[in-house]
Amino acid sequence: MLHSIVLHMAEAFETHLQELRRGTVVLACLQLLRTPGYGYGLLEDLQRTGFDTEANTLYPLLRRLEKQGHLTSHWNTDESRPRKFYQTSRDGLQLAEAMRTEWTKLTDAIDSLPEDPLTDEKN
């Protein structure tokens, strides 16, 4: 019984954590791609900085952000293997700044919540 409760809690945590990370990866990509980069290099940068992202999540995200006008891209064929380089567009920079501002507001709001509402009510 205890094992199934722990397993259920772990599954719920993973689901909610995935939802929380989804928006942060968008912001991280927009921030990191202020300097042009290609998909696999970006994936490594994301993982190195603590954004555990899968390739099958990243590449559709890059295409969507480009389609929305938040990224620009160009092919680099200088090397033996052509690579598509992405860079945050002017609109993407504005979006990143707005998202960062909202993230700060949300962080401040969460930090202002009582850690133990029952204890705080008694005081």
UniProtKB/TrEMBL annotation:
<dbReference type="Pfam" id="PF03551">
    <property type="entry name" value="PadR"/>
</dbReference>
<dbReference type="InterPro" id="IPR036388">
    <property type="entry name" value="WH-like_DNA-bd_sf"/>
</dbReference>
<dbReference type="InterPro" id="IPR036390">
    <property type="entry name" value="WH_DNA-bd_sf"/>
</dbReference>
<dbReference type="InterPro" id="IPR052509">
    <property type="entry name" value="Metal_resp_DNA-bind_regulator"/>
</dbReference>
<dbReference type="InterPro" id="IPR005149">
    <property type="entry name" value="Tscrpt_reg_PadR_N"/>
</dbReference>
<protein>
    <submittedName>
        <fullName>PadR family transcriptional regulator</fullName>
    </submittedName>
</protein>
<feature type="domain" description="Transcription regulator PadR N-terminal">
    <location>
        <begin position="32"/>
        <end position="94"/>
    </location>
</feature>
